[in-house]
Structures are given as C-alpha cells and as structure tokens.
Write a structure and sequence with these properties.
With 211 residues, the chain is mainly alpha-helical. The protein is 65% helix and 0% strand. It has a domain of 135 residues. One of its GO terms (molecular function) is transcription cis-regulatory region binding.
Length: 211
C-alpha cells in the first residue's frame, strides 16, 4: 500500500516557514523526491524565490528543517500520549506512550514520511541527530519500564513498522498495522513479560519455561 500520495496537513498554515516545509513535503508526496527544488517549493508555497531564501538560505537548510519536522511531530504525539499513560495506573508508561503516538499518527495519516526520506536521501548525515535521539529514547524507555526487555521488543517492533512504511515496503495495509499496534499496547499494559521475550541472550528463561 503506497503512502506517498498522502498529504499529511490538516489545516492551512499562516507562518511562511511552516508553509515552505509543508510545500516541500507535499511535493515529495505527490511527485517524488527528484522534483524537490527550491523553485518548485516556492511556487507551491505561494512565495517568491526570495521569500523562500529569506526563511531557508539553502536547500540543505530546508532538508534539515524537514528532518526536524519529522522528529518533532512524533515527539509532540508522544508527549500527548504520555498525559494518558502517566495516570492510567498501568505499567510501562513511557513505551506505551511511544507506541500510542505512532498508532495515532498512522491512524490520522499524520506522519507521511516522504519529506524525511527526501532529506536523508540527499544528505545522509542528517540522520546523525536522529540516531542520537533514538539512543536516548531507548535509555529512557528501559530505565522507566517495569518490563525493560518487553519495552525494547516493542520499540524494535514499532521501528520496524515505521521503516517499512518509510520505504513503502509493508506487506500489511494500515488497518492491519493498527490492529497489531493495539495488541502491543495491550501487552505492554500488563505486568508480566511473556516468556519468549524474557528468554533473550543474557537473560535466563523464567522458571518452568523450555530453553
């Protein structure tokens, strides 16, 4: 199922900087990465080339802003989900908030990844801050989870889903993926870690399990 035709913006922005980023992402969604030029972005944003350059002095600066938008969109969704998980009395609140955020973005078509893909395709070094972000995220998830192994398992599962959608490789449609994410959220809300996850290298299997 292709995700590249989805336009993820729910409302028209008045801030010219945000409109430019929206326009760049829209172009990637509709016409592909190769059509991303400053002239095309300016035209779609309804600005002059000079107006675009006032906000972004180069294409590299625009690409960096597209990566930042991608990361901040998920961060804002996680913060919103954390409000729910912090007070519901269930375990593994941090990772549940993360999975909920990804699920909500997927359900709302709000995380179209074409802009992110365009940016890293042209400038792979833009992935460096994303790697650092993920490293810190995993530390936070494991430190704050009652079931650290399950939390890491959930993180890897969700990132696998996001990566498949990023490259349009998922064999599942979105409703199916939403169903699996719901099951993961339910599993994380339980106190115990399933034996198949607990019996990972470096962690002895629970008593009574086979292995």
């Amino acid at each position: 199922m292709s995700n590249r035709q989805q336009i993820p913006h729910g409302r028209k922005r008045t801030n010219s900087r945000e409109r430019i980023i929206d326009a760049a992402i829209d172009l990637c969604c509709m016409e592909g990465v190769r059509h991303l030029s400053l002239d095309a972005v300016a035209e779609r944003a309804g600005l002059s080339k000079g107006g675009l350059l006032y906000n972004f002095s180069s294409k590299s600066a625009l690409l960096q802003a597209m990566v930042t938008r991608h990361v901040e969109t998920l961060g804002a969704a996680v913060a919103q989900s954390s409000i729910k998980t912090a007070c519901d009395g269930q375990p593994n609140a941090r990772i549940r908030a993360y999975v909920m955020a990804v699920r909500d973005l997927l359900a709302g078509k709000g995380s179209a990844p074409a802009g992110f893909l365009a940016a890293i395709a042209e400038e792979p070094q833009l992935l460096d801050p994303v790697r650092l972000h993920n490293e810190q995220l995993v530390r936070d998830i494991t430190d704050e989870s009652e079931s650290p192994d399950l939390a890491v398992f959930a993180f890897l599962t969700v990132e696998g889903i996001r990566s498949m959608r990023l490259f349009d490789l998922s064999p599942f449609d979105d409703p199916t993926l939403l169903g699996y994410l719901d099951k993961m959220i339910d599993l994380l809300g339980r106190a115990e870690t399933p034996p198949i996850i607990a019996a990972t290298p470096g962690h002895p299997p629970p008593q009574g399990s086979v292995g």
